[in-house]
């Protein structure tokens, strides 16, 4: 997949995997920082000794929402830039499922399949991705989601056939 594409190219990419990100290591510092930011200090995330003794995970695990929030970094890492884009927005998720815990020290990466795109208004393109966050050396993904984003562009750049 090229690093940059035209707005007119996007509809022809529906159904294709547009990118797989580099691996991101989820370490205790990342987990603790996220816990501080979200005020979620449950022991399974921030207390390695207690999590090892009292949880089925053998140590701390990342917050599910931490894993979900890494989608932005994964997106920037691997999806092609749309030349005409002036801004991107999160619209939301139709479905998010946390399939497997991300143990501290694990590496994760995202894979993005474009499943839908449609032009809305004069300068907006709504895109939907099936996203899977893989955990290195694990069979089940950390999460799966249907992520909806909006690409804003100057209306003069709208493809003629859109």
From TrEMBL:
Where does the record place the MaoC-like domain?
14-122
- Which superkingdom heads the taxonomic lineage of this protein's source? Bacteria
Q: Which InterPro entries match?
A: HotDog_dom_sf, MaoC-like_dom, NodN-like
Q: Please report the name of this protein according to its UniProt entry.
A: Nodulation protein N
**In the UniProt record, what gene is named as encoding this protein?**
nodN
